[in-house]
Automatic annotation (TrEMBL):
Species whose genome carries this gene: Diacronema lutheri
Signal peptide segment: 1-19
Source organism, top-level taxon: Eukaryota
Keyword annotations of the record: Signal
Protein name: Plastid lipid-associated protein/fibrillin conserved domain-containing protein
Length: 165
């Protein structure tokens, strides 16, 4: 696991010295604290992607009883200490001013290609900012999603984490 941690630290620190942006986080609706994991309610979140990309909706089923979802924004470049764990979880391994050790990363902003056409012209590929649900994804896919958040294409990255009660 230590080698994997080094890989992610190298990729999210692209573009210069490390440092955190202005703290901007919000604890969102509290997940249902009753019953089994299978009976937990969905949490509907609305996340501002910033930089003219607008707001997007995201639905997450809590993984833990009584957990809450936290939306965090970092200025690029930034340092993030995470590693993959059993069950496809991506877990924060070091507390900073926004995240706590043990937080589970559920999504990150990233960039992807989207086909667009206007006025009946041939479609053209356009890079656009989107949310990437990291839950259960392969480590390489998660690393690639973080790599897309570089200074040449964005000023910030948005993460959604689930915080245990």
């Amino acid at each position: 696991m230590a080698a994997a941690r080094c890989v992610i630290l190298a990729c999210v620190g692209l573009g210069g010295a490390s440092g955190f942006g202005v703290a901007r986080s919000a604890v969102l609706r509290r997940a249902a604290g009753h019953g089994h994991r299978a009976r937990a309610r969905m949490n509907e979140l609305v996340v501002d992607l910033g930089e003219g990309y607008g707001r997007v909706g995201a639905d997450f089923k809590p993984m833990f009883d009584g957990s809450s979802f936290v939306v965090v924004r970092y200025t690029v470049p930034f340092d993030l200490n995470i590693e993959p764990r059993d069950g496809g979880l991506i877990v924060v391994t070091k507390t900073d001013d926004k995240l706590q050790e043990g937080d589970v990363v559920r999504a990150t902003s990233t960039f992807s290609m989207r086909m667009e056409s206007s006025f009946g012209l041939l479609p053209a590929a356009k890079k656009t900012k989107a949310l990437f649900d990291v839950t259960g994804k392969e480590w390489d896919q998660v690393v690639q999603a973080f790599k897309e958040n570089r200074k040449s294409v964005t000023n910030d990255v948005v993460l959604i984490v689930e915080r245990k009660a």
